Amino acid sequence: QVQLVESGGGLVQAGGSLRLSCAASGSAFRLNTMGWYRQAPGKQRELVATITSAGTTTYADSAKGRFTISRDNAKNTVSLQMNNLKPEDTAVYYCSTIATQLTTTRQYKYWGQGTQVTVSS
Predict the structure, then answer these.
(1) 3-state DSSP: the chain helix, strand, coil percent, rounded to 5?
(2) What is the distance, to the nearest Å, from the Cα of residue 28 to the centroid of all Cα atoms in its chain?
(3) pLDDT of 15-67, one tens digit each?
(4) Can you list the pairs that 12-16 forms with residues at least 24 positions away whose Cβ atoms lie under 8 Å?
(5) Cβ 24 vs Cβ 56: under 8 Å
(6) CA-to-CA distance for 69 and 87, rounded, in angstroms?
(7) Cα–Cα distance measured from residue 77 to residue 66, given in angstroms and rounded to the nearest whole number
(8) Does residue 35 contact residue 43 with C-beta atoms inside 8 Å?
C-alpha cells in the first residue's frame, strides 16, 4: 500500500502563485509515474501534469507555461509550482502515482485525499 499526502493548497488572488507538495509513503513499492489531477465542481477529474521517474514531464494545455511539476526520487515527493493562477484553476487538486509492488511486479494506481485551490478574481 502507498499513501499519498498533499499539502500547499489555499486561497490566492488571480495572478498569484501556489506550490503543492505530495509525499508518498509505503514499503516494498517502486514509484513510477507521479502526477497531479484536478476536479472542479460539476466537472470530471482532469490531468494537470505528470512526471516519470526519469524526469520526463507532460502537461495539460491549460498548465503549459504556468505550472511546473518536479519530483525528488530520494524523498518520494512530487511538487507542482503554479504561477499566474487564474480563477478557472480553482479545483481540488489530487496527487497520484502508479506504483509497482516489488514482490509481485503488479502495478497499482494510488490517489491522495486532495487539496483545495481557490483562485479569486
Answers:
(1) 0, 60, 40
(2) 22
(3) 999 999 999 998 889 999 999 999 999 999 999 999 999 999 999 999 999 99
(4) 12/85, 12/117, 12/118, 12/119, 12/120, 13/119, 13/120, 13/121, 14/85, 14/86, 14/87, 14/119, 14/120, 14/121, 15/84, 15/85, 16/85, 16/119
(5) no
(6) 20
(7) 20
(8) no
Give the CB-side neighbour count of residue 53, counting CA atoms within 13 A: 11
Residues 6+ away with beta carbon under 8 Å from 102: 28, 29, 30
End-to-end CA distance of the chain: 40
- Angstrom distance (rounded) from CA 104 to CA 9: 35
All three cell numbers of 22: 505530495
